[in-house]
From TrEMBL:
It comes from the Bacteria. It comes from Inconstantimicrobium mannanitabidum. This is N-acetylneuraminate synthase.
Length: 334
């Protein structure tokens, strides 16, 4: 099964529907399977006393509060129906993360194929329960979480009867330092909870995605932007078009490198075998009717004769013809 690749548009539309559609176009052109947005009303998720996260302070105007920043990034709910329709036209899956019960209710009403839960909600049990009750497929992001917190979050969702949950490992830092990625934690969650896992990749470059796929990630999410120099909290840690296209190609190449796990020679190797493997050959000139002894056998290229592993069958047999030194034994010769 191919890795499911999500272009995370998030709030990089900056509250502009035209930019949102351009991000859809970008994701399609780069070869992503889905594009994800964030559906919210600022006051539903953020209080007036909330400070910005450190990375948000570094990437936006310092004087404004988190609520003021988020208000500028908000899109009216009905705009997401328009984006969804645009995605359908372009042949890409529309996904969005709800930031509260009101936005969750709206996304369910437009029949999104799955609900992506942000890392900020891992301990928000009432909200997790509401999401579980939708019966939708769920991807739960696990940034900032301990294994115990993830376990409890799963228990809450499972208590609704909804077992359609996959876990997304991530580090909630933009960009994430290589030493903070800890991809083995993704494997730990897969083994502990017996669920599909993936990576929400906030690093610079493709190495984390390549390693995650090699470790068994079934889905990868990456922030995308039209331009890293745009105003907003996430643009600097997001990938522009050329990089995202190459990023997806790296993932697809990694899938090809991993193959299907069946150990067998390729078609090209089969053709190469006759020139590179060894056959049983004569160590010296041998006359017809000679009884073959071990000392008369050597193992050299080409590989189109009797395999070395079958030399015991030749010993004690009589030759049917003369053989020259280094000539390959054939079954008709005995």
């Amino acid at each position: 099964m191919a890795v499911f690749i999500i272009g995370e548009a998030g709030v990089n539309h900056n509250g502009n529907i035209d930019i949102a559609k351009k991000l859809v176009d970008m994701a399609v052109e780069c070869g992503a399977d889905a594009i994800k947005f964030q559906t919210f009303k600022a006051e539903e998720s953020t209080g007036s006393f909330a400070e910005k996260a450190q990375y948000q302070k570094e990437n936006t105007v310092k004087e404004e509060s988190q609520l003021e920043m988020i208000r500028k990034l908000e899109l009216p709910f009905e705009k997401f129906k328009e984006i969804q329709s645009y995605c359908n036209e372009k042949g890409i899956i529309f996904i969005s993360t709800p930031d509260g019960e009101e936005s969750l209710k709206y996304l369910v009403s437009i029949d999104v194929p799955l609900i992506k839960i942000g890392s900020t909600e891992v301990t928000n049990y009432r909200f997790l329960h509401k999401i579980g009750e939708t019966g939708k497929n769920i991807i739960l992001s696990t940034g900032m979480s301990t294994l115990g917190e993830v376990e409890k979050a799963l228990e809450v969702i499972y208590s609704t009867g909804n077992k359609n949950v996959r876990l997304m490992h991530c580090t909630t830092d933009y960009p994430t330092k290589i030493q903070d990625v800890n991809l083995k934690a993704m494997v730990t969650m897969r083994d502990a909870f017996k669920v599909s896992v993936g990576l929400s990749d906030h690093t610079v470059g493709s190495e984390a995605a390549i390693a995650a796929v090699a470790l068994g990630a079934e889905f990868i999410e990456k922030h995308i932007t039209l331009d890293r120099n745009m105003e907003g909290p996430d643009h600097k840690a997001s990938m522009p078009k050329d990089e995202f296209k190459q990023y997806i190609q790296h993932i697809r190449n990694t899938e090809k490198l991993l193959g299907n796990g069946i150990k067998k020679p390729t078609n090209r190797e089969i053709a190469i075998m006759k020139d590179s493997r060894r056959s049983i050959v004569a160590t010296c000139n041998l006359k017809k009717d000679t009884i073959i002894e071990q000392s008369m056998l050597s193992y050299k290229r080409p590989g189109n004769g009797i395999k070395p592993e079958l030399d015991y069958i030749l010993i004690g047999r009589k030759l049917n013809r003369d053989l020259k030194k280094d000539e390959v034994f054939e079954w008709k010769d005995i």
